[in-house]
Amino acid sequence: MVDVPLGPIGTAPSPATEDVELYHPHSWVTKYVFSQDAKIIAIQYSFVALTVGLIALVLSWLMRLQLGFPGVFTFIDANAYYQFITMHGMMMVVYVLTALFLGGFGNYLIPLMVGARDMVFPYLNMLSFWVYLLAVLILVASFFAPGGPTGAGWTLYPPQAIMSGTPGGQDWGIVLMLVSLMVFIIGFTMGGLNYVVTVLQARARGMTLMRMPLTVWGIFTASFMALLAFPALFVGAVMMLFDRALGTSFFMPAIVEMGQTLDRSGGSPLLFQHLFWFFGHPEVYIVALPAFGIVSDLISTHARRNIFGYRMMVWALLAIGALSFVVWAHHMYVSGMNPYFGFFFATTTLIIAIPTAIKVYNWILTLWRGDIHLNVPMLFALAFIVTFLNGGLTGLFLGNVVVDVPLSDTMFVVAHFHMVMGVAPILVIFGAIYHWYPKVTGRMLNDTLGKLHFWVTFLGAYAIFFPMHYLGLMGVPRRYHEIGEMAFVPPSAHTLNAFITIVALIVGAVQLVFVFNLFWSLRHGRPSGGNPWRATTLEWQTPETPPPHGNWGKELPVVYRWAYDYSVPGAAEDFLPQNQPNAQATAGLAHG
Amino acid sequence: MGSILIFLSVLLIIGVWWLSRQGLMAKPWLEQGIAADWPSTSSAAPAAAKAGLKVFLAVVGSLFALFISAYAIRMQLPDWRALPLPKVLWLNTGMLILSSLALHGAWNAARQGKDDELKIGLLAASVTTLAFLSGQLLAWRQLTTEGYVLSSNSANAFFYVLTGIHGLHLLGGLAVLGRTTARAWQGVGAERLRLSVDLCAMYWHFLLLVWLILLSILTGWAGNMIDICRQLLS
């Protein structure tokens, strides 16, 4: 390694505490409930999101029970099935994944990783969580509303979403769903402003953009995308709410319902699809980019290797972020839009595969000849690479119009989508929780339970979704409450469905082991010390673990190097923290 | 979806320009130490607040660009019947321009530390903004009494939604402006109000720009522009 100092090497003065105005809690309530500390807010976000995740998991069990053993569970009628689908999808995509990656990890990691004391707008940050909680409560309330939650499918396509044939269409369900989404978006905007501006404005001395860990780059880019993409969902939700409640015809065409001509005319259901997917596709990457970033850091740390092609990784993140705004209509190949559109969107979709492939290659090259520690976070990170590659490859199939049209309404899409956006990001979330739990609590999660959790989840997810591709190729339709007897579906498909259901129950149950581990280790976990993984990034260098309010004690850290100085030749240890001024200084110290 | 893509292209250009100054070509693995010109306190509150507002304006811009995209798509459909705009909108536009000018005056006064001018400027901006908002309500009433109700045609619905969302944004800004004005009249000096006035002025100029664009679309002046946008995607 060549030293090219940008400035004088040595300990640089750091801005003292007096320069920074910090909010200080005065009571138990303002410290742990209405807290303005990003770390507490992160835990609140994560707790609520994981709880919603468990509800959505149970919903998926119920769906699988119906698909695996049709007719056995009589309380799951067609309406209930569609309600489960809708709530499972919307909860997982928006209220779990987005909230957990940005609200949870974003809040915890951004200030610590860039060397700030807190987010730049702590009050807004606190508000963001409470508004998110309100959105969750509104959504959950729809289970208890007359008519139950909406069963419009998680994409909420009009006109069916607001008509009487759909569960919740003319009851409370769809209204609560739309209001909840709008509230969520308002809350997210408050948080998103914090995540972006903290990265822009509150970085520690010496922390240039190109020294930031890729986790921060991923969350930063994703937050910016989310800020620009969520308004599309907001616009769609406002207009549909008007259609539903005030009798406008934004999306409602002239239509006959139950033999009666409705008082609507001329609206465009396709317009909603454009708006929805203008949000919906970036949303995939809003979830994926933080996952990419986190995985890069996990792999680098646990393979004791600097990340391969750091610059390329950053550029690829930015390129994916920009490109993801011009691919939305690949979700609409079968919507009846102009077929020439399809070619444009197929092209952009395939182009996105290039930066994504660069990232996958770089992860693999980081692992190449690394000192790989197969601990639980690393296992999850490796599983992510495989799963994401898998889901990404089927994505290339579906990105082509001619392949997509016959497969679009089959289980193949369900399998692809769950591999790439369901399983893959969840694996990263688990990996990240095992990785950062010691920093949050000061104790390690139990390793044996963690490995059990990993292997059942990873192999189980493959046992669930791999066969689903075959079902799709066979022509088994998605969205059907019951397949019934179709000439082209062989009896073996039913056996396979039963198998998938049983595995899904097992994988779901094993998540309880994880939840148990989270609570058990809080008391009984092995004390971790400040930097159990011997990692370079700033969050591991805090004077106390778990970091107290204000993170850094009296002096803010000063950053002298990038985030990936692992296995540096000549250094005393095999890693150099970002705030360590001089490699030789410590080496000398160790020898002296 | 042309207008949102144009809006995002503008943001992309700004983003690329900004990133190009952030040393994205640096080779961080070769560079250690700290650049000598690193600002001593990077998390200064005014800078953060201004950056925050700019990002927020990007979000608001995206929201309106999407509404305009939806408008452009919906207006092509055969049942669209444009509505005659109430004359009071012109008066309202004048009011909003005045309020933007008043805030610009206040911004200047805050810069030069002239407390009295600042008070007058802020008050004038608040009053003209209130006048704009009541004018908009008047326009709504006029339209409803003439029978252009929300549900009778999508052109009407869009008029109410666009003006409503714009009004709500202005109302939110007015809460901040009102507080700033009250503080100015309670004798808080220009020096301490400067940040608030800066932020209000930026927000007002932006919402004036949004209103002028909305007006040009509602009146149909922007018809050619919308046609061009539409052709981008068909």
TrEMBL record, chain A:
Keyword field: Cell membrane, Copper, Electron transport, Heme, Iron, Membrane, Metal-binding, Respiratory chain, Translocase, Transmembrane, Transmembrane helix, Transport
EC number, as in UniProt: 7.1.1.9
A GO molecular function held by the record: heme binding
Pathway annotation: Energy metabolism; oxidative phosphorylation
InterPro entries with a match to the protein in the record: Cyt_c_oxase-like_su1_dom, Cyt_c_oxase-like_su1_sf, Cyt_C_Oxase_1, Cyt_c_Oxase_su1_BS, Cyt_c_oxidase_su1_bac
Top-rank taxon: Bacteria
Pfam family, one: COX1
Cellular-component GO terms for this entry: plasma membrane
Location of the Cytochrome oxidase subunit I profile domain: 22-560
Family from the record: Belongs to the heme-copper respiratory oxidase family.
Reported function: Cytochrome c oxidase is the component of the respiratory chain that catalyzes the reduction of oxygen to water. Subunits 1-3 form the functional core of the enzyme complex. CO I is the catalytic subunit of the enzyme. Electrons originating in cytochrome c are transferred via the copper A center of subunit 2 and heme A of subunit 1 to the bimetallic center formed by heme A3 and copper B.
NCBIfam families: CtaD_CoxA
Name this polypeptide is given: Cytochrome c oxidase subunit 1
Biological source species: Microvirga guangxiensis
UniProtKB/TrEMBL annotation, chain B:
Swiss-Prot/TrEMBL keywords: Membrane, Transmembrane, Transmembrane helix
Domain Heme-copper oxidase subunit III family profile: start-end pairs: 1-223
Transmembrane segments annotated in the record for this chain: 6-24, 55-73, 88-108, 120-138, 158-178, 199-222
Record-level GO cellular component terms: plasma membrane
Keyword Isomerase part of the UniProt annotation: no
Membrane topology category: Multi-pass membrane protein
PROSITE patterns: COX3 (PS50253)
SUPFAM superfamilies, sorted: Cytochrome c oxidase subunit III-like
Protein name (Swiss-Prot/TrEMBL): Cytochrome c oxidase subunit 3
